[in-house]
Description:
The complex is a heterodimer.
Chain A (H helix, E strand, L loop, with lengths): L17 H8 L5 H5 L2 H7 L11 H9 L7 E6 L8 H8 L1 H15 L4 E6 L3 H13 L7 E6 L8 H10 L21 E5 H13 L1 H5 L9 E7 L5 E6 L4 H8 L10 E4 L5 E4 H4 L6 H6 L8 E5 L5 H14 L6 H19 L6 H12 L7 H15 L1 H10 L21
Chain B lengths: L12 E5 L9 H5 L4 E3 L5 E3 L9 H10 L5 E5 L4
The complex binds flavin mononucleotide and iron/sulfur cluster (2 copies).
Amino acid sequence: MEPRIFAGPPAAGGPESLADHAARLGLVPRGSAAEATIPVIEASGLLGRGGAGFPVGRKWRSVAGQAGGAPAVLVNGAEGEPLSSKDRTLMRLRPHLVLDGALLAADAVGADRIAIYVGSAHRDARDSIERALVERRDIRLPVQLFAAPATYVAGEESAAVHFVNAADARPTVTPPRPYERGIDGRPTLVQNVESLANAALIARFGDAWYRGVGRSSTPGSALVTVSGSDRDGVREIEIGTPIGELAEVAGAGRDPRDRQAVLLGGYFGGWVSAERGWGLPLDPVELRDAGSAFGAGVVAFLGHDRCGVRATARIMDYMAGQSAAQCGPCVFGLRAIADATAGLANGTAARDDLARIERWSQQLAGRGACRHPDGAVGQLLSSLRVFGSEWEIHQRRRTCSREGFRSFAVPVVREKVA
Amino acid sequence: MLTAQPTSRAAAAELVVDRIACDGFGMCAELLPELINLDDWGYPIVRSGGVPDELMDHARRAVAVCPVLALRLRRSVRP
Lengths: 418, 79
Ligand SMILES: Cc1cc2nc3c(=O)[nH]c(=O)nc-3n(C[C@H](O)[C@H](O)[C@H](O)COP(=O)(O)O)c2cc1C
Ligand code: SF4
Ligand code: SF4
């Protein structure tokens, strides 16, 4: 597939200037022409890229149809997921495509203000967006840049709105959801940066163009962040590309036997064994049906030299530490699960710890104000399925079968288009 | 024994907990053990399927007893 989001100058050239961007793509529809794109975005089948995979066009329509004052648009570039770097890469290299999407969305839903929410750790992305804002002459509504705190939960939609409203990036109780009452109590469209960049292309080239690629039931292309391969980085793929094919291009082996498992979606995603995963299409709907998730487009390969139990323990410890510490079940439940998981990983588990983390995990879903605990235990439960025998060995023998290869480093993904 | 399994009639209301406000300790569970269990830390686990008519009075009492107004009865969204 020819790149779409990353069409144009090579990554090494850095951010695309407004002149180059406009010469290459022309102008994005604005005003009433933008309103007329809502049915086009709907027809394209574009799904949100922040994790939940909600249809973008449907969200625009419902925000546009809300009572309660002129809406606001919140551009979500928080990207707190440790295994993802696609959003910061996109913001850095194609700032004008992201701004096009934001301006288009604002005009489409009738918004009179835009908040751009960029993870405070993503300096280059923020600088690039800031410079791009200065370059533009077609911005006729207030656009404000916010530095999202570097926490996992800061990118959750109600947390993002809360930060813009009150400088507090902790989720709030919903309903009302942000699309009903968000920034300044007004209906707010919270949309991931990659979703907006795609919308900016669909508005120009049409829904049929968007659906012109895609190898499974979900049309289009997507950005993914690959790690655990020889050539880690951000890639643009056709949705539905089998994991094994991506593994081969990225240098994660030609054969499922070259890897042990794959974590899909991110820390709130799900594991699949390499054997099962190699043939699975990277498609939000099909991965969900397979008990995993496309999530934010994370594809993290786990080698045979790594221990899945330890990997999971590291992730759970991180997730427990990232709880926004507001809801009892999340605060105590995730911490207890993480501690028991750590015990299993390092051989100090009590006899029934495995059974307990299973029970606690099943009890936790749906019992926080936000879906942070749901995501964390979803990942854990998938790990119990995929590394089942490994977990039992850890419980029974208090040892790790991957002797000599005990460390699991959470791969740090470089910001690079591979 | 009464159970809270989804009844043949769709329940008219469901219990929702404001997870941020809830302090645990489970006064609600004491009054409505048919529908509310506590987890290992004293936080409520509400059974799914809504509140059957015959438990509505108990449910209202549980809502009233919550010291931090974290428990609410909401009309079921599903018909
Ligand atoms: C714990 C948690 C963290 C999240 N972090 C992000 C994030 O960093 N960036 C993002 O775009 N969406 C994030 N989301 C998803 C948002 O809540 C929201 O669904 C999304 O921004 C909507 O945009 P989309 O429909 O374009 O995906 C997160 C969700 C949860 C539960
Ligand atoms: S569920 Fe956890 S992360 Fe979400 S608001 Fe509650 S305490 Fe915070
Ligand atoms: S009575 Fe209220 S605060 Fe106490 S556990 Fe029940 S819902 Fe939570």
